[in-house]
Amino acid sequence: MTRIKVCGLTRVADIQFVAASGADAIGLVFYEKSPRYVTIAQAQCLLAALPPFVSVVGLFVNASAEAVRAVQQQVALDVLQFHGEESPEFCRQFGRPYLKAIRVKAGVDLLQCAARYADAQALLLDAYVEGTHGGTGESFDWALIPHNLPLPVILSGGLHPGNVAAAISAVRPYAVDVSSGVEAAKGIKDAAKVAAFINEVKHIEL
Ligand SMILES: O=C(O)c1ccccc1N[C@@H]1O[C@H](COP(=O)(O)O)[C@@H](O)[C@H]1O
């Protein structure tokens, strides 16, 4: 079964219906330039509404170690997601499982990335879009992903209910990660789109 992460939650109601729809993980964005940014206080409030057995992923983009630690100390994160140019040494210093996001375009050597971030829990593959760090709703050419990557792949970038089944068939990822594709507006999730996305993933026949 392909796991599902829904990222960029900013509202208690969204947390509740995303969890009730069957997501395995939710993502909170601690990147101030994102329209989905949440403060530590907001994150604490959101997580108070989260039922058990849903993992919480904290997303950072080139944050300082102090900023990551401040979040880590006050918000019950299960996994850290580094979506910038963080080095392996930076990522591993927090003593928490981490996902390293790689923004994929032609010429990016994903095998080399997997070797460099060998202690990551997974590589999270997103689309490369000039001038942004992610959450763009853009997809990339899934054929650029080697079949022999030694780390689990979390596929993201422009996924939505209409393409997620094809994406899973093509890539066979460990998990899929979605943000823009299940939104009514930036940072506001759409319950019907979330349900449709999760239904597609759970009913795919491989
Ligand atoms: O969600 C954001 O605003 C964001 C900002 C900076 C870096 C990453 C961000 N989100 C992550 O981007 C990918 C793809 O998202 P989308 O489905 O294409 O919108 C996903 O991993 C989000 O967690």
From TrEMBL:
Gene giving rise to this polypeptide: trpF
Record's keyword terms, sorted: Amino-acid biosynthesis, Aromatic amino acid biosynthesis, Isomerase, Tryptophan biosynthesis
InterPro entries for this protein: Aldolase_TIM, PRAI_dom, RibuloseP-bd_barrel, TrpF_fam
GO BP: L-tryptophan biosynthetic process
EC number: 5.3.1.24
GO molecular function, one term: phosphoribosylanthranilate isomerase activity
Protein name per the record: N-(5'-phosphoribosyl)anthranilate isomerase
Protein source organism: Ferriphaselus amnicola
Enzyme class: isomerase
One Pfam entry name: PRAI
Catalytic activity: N-(5-phospho-beta-D-ribosyl)anthranilate = 1-(2-carboxyphenylamino)-1-deoxy-D-ribulose 5-phosphate
Transmembrane segments: none
